[in-house]
Amino acid sequence: MVVLTLGAHIVDVLARPVDELPGGQDTVVVDEIRVTAAGSAAGTAVALARLGNEVVSVGAVGDDDLGDLLGVLMTRHGVDVSGLVRRADAQTAASVLPIRPDGGRPSFHAPGANLTLTANAVDPGLLAAADAIHLGGPDVTFGLNDPAFLASLDAARASGTVVTLDFLSNMPDLLHGARAFLGHVDHVLPNEEQAAVLTGEDDPELAARLLLAEGPASVVVTLGAEGSLLATRETVHRVPALDVPVVDTTGCGDAYCAGYLTALLRGLPYLEAARWGTAAAATVAQGLGSDAGLTDLDAVLALL
């Protein structure tokens, strides 16, 4: 099975634990610092590859050291990065995340080259050849909101390709700009805040039903420590989170998407796919960074 991940590519620099930012020129000694491939496309690509999928990732990065590093990190995890476009006039998107002792993650973020991605960067042959396409962060790669690209997604779906979508930001203007994609995908996986912004509904079930009305076959609203809510046109299920020690929540949503899509590609029901997503997210939550703890599918499923 070949999965194409398309959208936001980010380099994360993470440090933990950080109780508060030091003042002046003070230095705080932390236990751990890591650099990882992240973003709703790159982070999900790494997780998908770790779960045994063949993955090609497409996005825009800078023609800079961070872009080189991101390519190395993704390649090391088994992702084909030949679809990355290098931009001489923009830096690679990057975030610095001081991780709190409870796993919370404020961030400093430079959006960089993600904002320059356009549909012209996507090889139509890749869309046609993929068994699945994951749109990661179309709210920040708004250059993909192109009628010809949306028509290509529809053609891929008509031929049997599964299309999933996850968002990156919580910013209302960006999220509402990405609504155009909802009628061209099969499965949407927002977090609780994103679902509320998109629909105006704070109740996750009502928000999921409103998103379903725009076209997808399933909506999964991730709820952090409360697990997730899976909604289809026929049923709604609450899927509890797994009881694991939480180190860092960075990348949990990306891992959930990867687990969900991996199960769908194996022909499993939506509810079982949500359980796979839950287990993948729980694995990542136990370490620092979006790839923490992800070794292979068997290790993830062992949590179930």
TrEMBL record:
PANTHER family: RIBOKINASE, SUGAR KINASE
Keyword presence, Protease: no
Gene3D superfamilies: 3.40.1190.20
Keywords of this entry: Kinase, Transferase
Domain Carbohydrate kinase PfkB: 14-293
UniProt organism field: Actinomadura gamaensis
Protein known as: Carbohydrate kinase family protein
GO MF, one annotated term: kinase activity
